[in-house]
Specification:
- Helices cover 2% and strands 48% of the residues.
- It has one helix at residues 115-118, and strands spanning 4-8, 24-26, 38-41, 53-62, 69-76, 82-90, 95-102, 106-113, 122-130, 135-140, 143-148, 159-164, 175-184, 187-191, 200-202, 208-213, 229-233, 237-242, 247-252.
- Strands 8-7-6-5-12-3-16-15 form an 8-stranded antiparallel beta sheet.
- The protein starts with a strand and ends in a 5-residue tail after the last strand.
- The model is unreliable at 1-20 (pLDDT under 50).
């Protein structure tokens, strides 16, 4: 019997088993600068509004522990305030470290997780800035902190949010985001990141609220086949799904003589 070649293109793990196929991927140092993305909310051509309270909620999934750098960058367009969320992996301690810092000044919050907790797993992140009370509340996974910053009280805070590359920052972590939500005073904007092409980013009401350069829309993985595994067999071979164990079995059958 001729050798049977089986080439299986598995999109199950990327589509059918993925509850939330939407999102955006940002390449880090494993790619050239030309292949990295930059998301700006609002777009750089628009003028952000002044707010007293501002919040960002999302889920972050890290792809490459060897690619440290920026995840998000938040700057005040009317002042000097700027904050960044940075990812790094400490190979000596075997810890994945998230750092929230005030740019050019100091680290405001730092927390660490095991490799198993962060690699290819979505983690909730929440950042809330209040210029009335001068307080920043941040949570990454189950780790939380309240940061008191009296210098924020009463400032004219006009926030511009970036993910990935931003302005002169090119050192990015390798990550994806989904379930993005922005709160500004009493307004909440849900951003599903469900587009499949283009550079416009829309909110849940289909209104353009930002721009993405060199986008990598994750929903496209539900529409295309990507080869991730190859096997060879000299006998008829196939897959069977075990409902009890919710697992798949690789089945070999003997040739008929």
């Amino acid at each position: 019997m001729k050798r049977l070649t089986i080439i299986i293109y598995l999109i199950i793990s990327q589509s059918f088993l993925c509850v939330y196929p939407q999102g955006l991927q940002f390449h880090g140092n494993e790619k050239t600068i030309a292949d990295r993305s930059s998301l700006s909310i609002p777009g750089e051509d628009e003028k952000p509004k002044v707010v007293s309270e501002y919040g960002v909620d999302l889920e972050v999934r890290n792809h490459n522990l060897n690619s440290p750098g920026i995840i998000l960058y938040l700057r005040d367009t009317t002042g000097d305030e700027a904050f960044s969320l940075i990812f790094n992996y400490d190979f000596g301690e075997n810890k994945a470290v998230f750092t929230f810092a005030k740019n050019g000044e100091k680290t405001l919050f730092s927390t660490s997780f095991t490799k198993e907790e962060v690699l290819e797993k979505y983690m909730p992140v929440s950042i809330r800035i209040n210029t009335v009370s001068g307080v920043i509340d941040i949570s990454i996974g189950s780790h939380k902190s309240t940061i008191r910053m009296p210098e924020l009280k009463g400032i004219q805070f006009s926030p511009q949010l970036y993910f990935g590359m931003s302005r002169n920052i090119v050192e990015c972590a390798s990550f994806s985001i989904r379930n993005l939500r922005i709160t500004a005073d009493n307004s909440t904007t849900d951003i599903p990141l469900s587009e499949c092409d283009g550079e416009n980013v829309h909110d849940s009401d289909k209104k353009v609220i930002g721009k993405i350069k060199n986008p990598k829309w994750l929903i496209n993985r539900s529409f295309s086949w990507n080869p991730i595994w190859k096997a060879y067999s000299s006998t008829p071979t196939g897959f069977a799904f075990d409902k009890t164990r919710q697992d798949k079995n690789f089945i070999h059958t003997m040739p008929i003589l």
